[in-house]
Amino acid sequence: MRRVAIGLVFPFAVVVLWELLGRAGLASEDGFSRPSLVAVALAKSLADGTLLQQTGETFISAVIGLLIAAVTAVATGAVLGLFRTLERVTTLTVEALRPIPSVALIPVALLVFGFGQNMSVAVVAFACFWPMLIITISAVRGIDPRLIEVGRMMGFSLATRIRKFALPAALPGIMVGFRIASGIAIVVAVTVEIAANPRGLGYGMIVAQQSLHADLMWATLVWLGVVGWFANWGLLALERRWLRWFWTQREA
Amino acid sequence: MMRRAAWAAASLAFLVAVVLAWKLVADAKLVNPMFLPAPDRAFATLAGWIESGELWDPLSKTVWRMFAGWIAASLAGIALGAAIASSRRARDLFAPSVEFLRPLPASAVLPPAALLLGLSDTMIVSVIAFGTVWPILLGSIHGFKALDPRLTEVARMLRFGPLQRMFKFQLPNALPEIFAGMRVSLALALILTVVAEMLSSQPGLGHMVLVAARAFRSADIFAGIFVLGVLGFLTNSLMQYLEAYLLRWRPAHSGG
Amino acid sequence: MTVSGAAGAPPVLAARGVSLAFGAPGAARTILSDLSFEVPEREFVCIVGPSGCGKTTLLRVLAGLVPATAGEAQFQGRRVIAPQPDIAIIFQDYGRALLPWRTVSGNIALAFEARGIPKSEHARRSAPLLAEMRLTEHAHKFPAELSGGMQQRVQIARCLAQEPRVLLMDEPFGALDAITRQTLQDELARLCESEHRTVLFVTHDLEEAIYLGDRVIALAANPGRIVEIIDVDLPRPRHQLETREHPRFLDYRHRLFVHLGHD
Fold first, then answer.
1. pTM above 0.90, yes or no
2. What's the gap in Å between the CA of B147 and the closest CA on chain A?
3. What dotted CATH number matches A35-251?
4. Which residues of B touch C102 (CB under 8 A)?
5. Superfamily of domain B40-246
6. B150 at the C interface (CB within 8 A)?
7. What ipTM does the predicted assembly reach?
8. Per-residue pLDDT reduced to its tens digit, A26-79
9. A118 chain-B contacts, CB cut-off 8 A
10. What does the domain layout of chain B look like in residue ranges?
């Protein structure tokens, strides 16, 4: 507990200093604002629902994009992981597409979908696909080959073998990939909003900045930080719970 | 060796097949050519850029900003990390804040920076430096913390002063973790540069492709994506080679 | 028990009433209790004792790494309170004592750098050391590429590069297999003999102590105290087979065993 208290000293000091500097007028730019004003703006924005609406927009884009990426990446990864030949043949294509920064897709997505949710979803899906693909391939390749043999000998179809044998065994690895991708999803969603898309928390910050409402901008940023932290923490807790349940299930 | 070459050829063949499929789809106009240009159109645009020299100015600006910001972030991150790691008190004070800021999108520093610094080159480089310092800082803190106490005793027996200990012992020891952070940061720097350019309409690759999008010039967009992909690939390869050389002393089975 | 060396110049290394205790007063544990002995020049002195008798701690006190709570360690008559350039210590965990990011040459050069020797001199000075420790063809390799025995040789070479007046060795061969251990024992003996080195060698292996030493100091545990000092009168150079079957060797071994029990 004491550790937590010490950890809060620095942020607390920053906030206090910021407030004092703002009041003393020492910060020349209006852009700096003051924690007290930021807090007011935060409360107002929460009360009138804009912040929550924006949060919802960002999150929905992130979640949908993540799910699309997860489903396609796990399916593709499972197949590529099981069939070494396929993986070898596609490796150059994967390595050619993977280094493309997701933000580079923003113009294409903009062109195809125009402004709106679908554009964000598309870019998020692209960004989350590759790490999940790589991790799934590696997780599936790490499965005990005898397990796959058993599936084949029992005469199951490919789809069933993936469903009953490959995926459960690769699940822990896939879960880690999912958690990593979820972090990416939120970050990419916000980034797309900052760069181009007029919705969500990213856009909220841009609008505030462009209309010189510094306190609202900082308030949105703080909110984003808090929400992002909770999301990250929640995902970790979820992953732990899930894996624990998963392992106890297997022992049963 | 033969098998490796065979697989590489097969892989290449697959990629070529994908590009061919792309061409067929585009030519048959299965997808609106405004969205999906034929690959030869995109490459023609790219070739045009290179010939006319149009590519170099935005490309060099993007690359310069990316590296300037990243190098500034590296120097600051390493120095700060060393300072923070050196005392337990400093670690307890600062490390939690750094950890808390980790999930925050680096691009979120853009609106504040735009507000405070305006839309300029300085702003972009500052954003990249500020946004990419965190992975390096974290890696640096972890790396400097971890010197084997036996090595500290060796340093004592040889009676090295604090400066010598830093450069002969602590810095090389921290390098793997610092380098891992620098690698993540470089990828992040590319992304941030592109976004900053899009936002601030400063000349650069990001701005170039965004303008092309607004003007519905799909071939330009795809040419731009290609260049960005190559840039991403080259920077990643650069880091991989550097790592393989600088960290070649690591035992084969060491974990990341 | 004290044994005095030659009259006149102070011995290279000495312990005078060294005691070390840990913990708060009242609940303190005594690790070392009133140890006194001398290491004269050119002698190979072995300290042998069971695990936990404090022999490693004693070595660290003499190295200046750890202060004694009572009494003092002396180097050439002067109190040792911090590491000295003339005292080199070789650790048992060689893997952790080498800089993994430097080659064999680089690790040896560390000692030259500590002494302020210019870089241009390093190659020339390290050549004989590399040859002596049979590392010449491995000079460009990193520790991770070397076997345990080779790594320990590198550590020894680095310590020799310090040009110390006395070598402290903390169970240097304890983590090695029996064959490598014997090989290194003989190499060490040959080296110290030809260079007239002063060595203080700590081990739990009774036979190793007798085999290598001119004198063996036996330390019992809880608290660490001297229970026996044996002057080893065996012909040099020592031989793994003949020396170990020598009647006096067996006699010393018997005496140590009686005092120390199993190791």
1. no
2. 23
3. 1.10.3720.10
4. 172, 249
5. MetI-like (1.10.3720.10)
6. yes
7. 0.88
8. 655 567 788 888 888 889 888 888 889 999 999 999 999 999 999 999 989 888
9. none
10. 40-246
